[in-house]
Amino acid sequence: MGNCVGVADGNGNLVPLQTSTTTIVILGASGSIGTATAAALKHVNRNIRVIAGVRNPDVAASKNAGLVAAGAELVRADMADPVKVLAKAVPAGSRVLVVTPGHADRTELAINGINAAVAAGASHIGLVSVTSAESTGTFGDQFRPIENAVSNRANGTPFTIFRLPMFLDNFLFQPIADASSTFLPVAADLPFSTIPVSDIGEAIANGLAFPDRFTNRSLNLGGVLSSAGAIAQAFSAALGKPVGHTEVDDEACFGSLHQGGNGMPEWQARGVVQLWGLIRAGDTTQVIPSGNNHTTELLGRAPTTVEEWAESVKGAFLPAEAVAELPTVVVLGSSGFVGSATVSSLSARGDVAVIAGVRNPDPAAPKNAGLVAAKATLVKADMGSPTDELAAVIPAGSRVLVVTPGGTLERTKLALNGIQAAVAAKASHIGLVSVTSVAAATGVFAEQFRPLETAVAASGVPFTIFRLPPFLDNLFGQPIKDAGQIYEPVPSDAARTLPTVSDIGEAISNALAQPAPRFVNRTLNIAGVAVTGANSAKALAAVLGKEVGHVTVPAAAAKESMVSKGFPEWMVDGFLDLLQLAADGDKSQLTPEGDNHTRELLGRAPTTVAQWVEAVKPGFQ
User: Fold this and answer.
1) Which residue in 78, 222, 355, 451 has the fewest CB atoms around it within 10 Å?
2) Is 98 in contact with 113 (CB distance < 8 Å)?
3) Model confidence over 549-572: pLDDT tens digits?
4) Positive or negative, the Cα torsion across 244, 247, 252, 255?
5) Phi-psi group of 24: left, alpha or beta (phi > 0 → left; psi -120 to 50 → alpha; rest → beta)
6) How many CB atoms lie within 10 A of CB 307?
7) How far is residue 598's CA from residue 466's CA, in Å, rounded to a whole number?
8) Is the pLDDT of residue 527 over 90?
């Protein structure tokens, strides 16, 4: 029968057993684009191996901090090295992203990187270029030969060119904190295309993870159409103070770039001023028509707005005391799937400070990679520690999420200790990750989690209980890649409600960031969407382009399969309880629409099976 099911995580949900590794090499990885892409690749699919090619592969080097946090493998890969030397850093068959260096010799260096990828037998080459590649000017003249090298001289290697306009992040260098104004050589209302680095990284990561859709195409990551005045207004709203825009001439702009704090070399400063000239002329390389803007296609969502971006980076312009006033959310048990997803979503909001409680707070520990990438503060918080020691890491007045540990029969005792520590530390709000099967009469997991819900409700502290069913991500534990089948002791037409881990993290983070008054003292079911085994198989087949079926197997066979792999028998019994409830149509596993709070928590429709499969497609290939 093969792999029947996987191992349950901290909430009785399956952890993937099946892996499918794709290798992606980033040449020129230590800059903002390379680092953002590496971080995004980690979230696209956990089975992607990311190799970061840098000149100095020392993990302690400050330029490599983001790459290390993203779990990338650092290798020495200097694009100035001979092709034969550079090619050694690129495994045959891997996908390669060439991030053009910010150097006067960038054209020769990037072409050398392309030639090395071809020599190494890369299966796909991605190139970071600029939207002005087809225009006359410093940057256009530099990037045009690089694009030609990819499209005309790469010996038939499939490629994707990612063209970038002006970054929103460039506004981080404006004197908004001191002068409350932006200073640029354009009128306040003049439109131009702009995009944050985080969107660029996510878009390129998707393009590299799913290259078939984007093969041999030049894609414009045009972001959104905005203006200097609109960006100033966005900062005004985010910072709560007036921020204006001052139009300056080209030489003043050049002087601030070349001689000011940015210290750009002359050629680069002239190139930036030329871009502003293209914007004043309304050139379509900088004011990108919607039909030529591929950002939404690559992201699978609308690009980040200037208002959203300004809100997310406002801490860079606020005094330290203002940042310190942000509410704090402490996540106990944060290194698992649910904890890590919640920390990432909380950090992305920018309106809370996030403390990730883990047993081992070493930033280099693999389990902490996602937490470090989210820029959470890591603290030692072992729920097996005495209550007073655990309470000492929880700031008074903070909001605390208790993610019940998995893999141990002591999970109830440990989580109760976490709740008691939150009470002792005078937490202002307690969130508890529970399971929907608590509503069922009996069952291993129901009996483990029911005392936790009782303790939270009786704590005297405002609370929110988040009940979860099994996850859609549990399909990773099925032998879909090798056997093209889903094996479960559940009828193929039995409906269940299943959320994705990413939706769970986002839903919980929304409630913890703004708990009052909507989510105080409530028990909420994050149930996701209603699916059947047959429908899941159909969605997989449609996306993967191969037959996928669902096979109903006896519960005894499923148990034997899991126990033989070394999973604790109590955990196996608990998961089989859930599957039996699903087979019986119990509402704890098929949550009625009126009791499903996923949309309320997310502020949108939950992710469908088809959307999820498309997003994680490499994991099944």
Assistant:
1) 451
2) yes
3) 999 999 999 899 888 878 899 999
4) positive
5) beta
6) 17
7) 10
8) yes
pLDDT tops 70 at residue 440 = yes
Q: Peptide bond preceding 289: is omega within 30 degrees of 0, i.e. cis? A: no
Whether 382 has a pLDDT exceeding 70, the answer reads: yes
Closest CA to 123 of 159, 88, 151, 147: 159
Q: Indicate the average pLDDT of the chain.
A: 89
Q: What is the DSSP letter of 608?
A: P
Q: Which two tokens stand for residue 196?
A: 């944050």
Residues 6+ apart with CB under 8 A from 227: 186, 188, 189, 190, 191, 192
User: Residue 19: its pLDDT value, please?
Assistant: 40
Residue written as token pair 């007045």: 397
In this prediction, residues 263-282 reach a mean pLDDT of: 92
Whether the pTM exceeds 0.85: the reply is no
Specify the pLDDT at position 322. 61
Helix (H), strand (E) at residue 379: strand 377-380
Find all residues with CB under 8 Å of 471, minimum gap 6, and list them.
Answer: 13, 14, 337, 498, 499, 500, 501, 504
Cα–Cα dist 487/492, whole Å = 10
Q: How far is CA 191 from the centre of its chain?
A: 30
Task: Report DSSP letters for 227-271, one per residue.
Answer: EHHHHHHHHHHHHTS--EEEE--HHHHHHHHHTSTT---HHHHHH
Among 223, 189, 210, CA closest to 292: 223
- State the Cα–Cα distance between residues 501 and 475, nearest whole angstrom: 12
Cβ proximity of 93 and 106 under 8 Å:
no
Q: Bigger pLDDT: 33 or 371? A: 33
From CA 313, how far away is CA 239, in angstroms rounded?
Answer: 10
Question: How far apart, in whole angstroms, are the C-alpha atoms of residue 405 and residue 372?
Answer: 20
What does DSSP assign to residue 172? G
- Joined together, the tokens standing for residue 94 give 């891997």
Q: If residue 448 lies in a helix (H) or strand (E), which one and from where to where? A: helix 444-457
Identify the helix (H) or strand (E) that includes residue 313. Answer: helix 306-313
pLDDT value at 457 more than 80: yes
Q: Residue holding tokens 């483990």?
A: 448
For 500, the token pair is 């994705």
Element (H, E) at 575: helix 569-583
Give the residue ranges of DSSP H helices in 70-179: 83-87, 106-119, 138-152, 176-179
Residue 99 in tokens: 């991030």
Q: Please write the tens of the pLDDT for every residue from 275-290.
A: 999 999 999 999 999 9
Helix/strand/coil for 181:
strand
Average pLDDT in the 301-324 region? 78
Chain segment 100-153, per-residue pLDDT in tens: 998 899 999 999 999 999 999 999 999 999 999 989 899 999 999 999 999 886
Confidence of residue 5 (pLDDT cuts 50, 70, 90): very low
Q: Are 12 and 578 contacting, i.e. CB atoms less than 8 angstroms apart?
A: yes
**pLDDT at residue 156 greater than cutoff 60:** yes
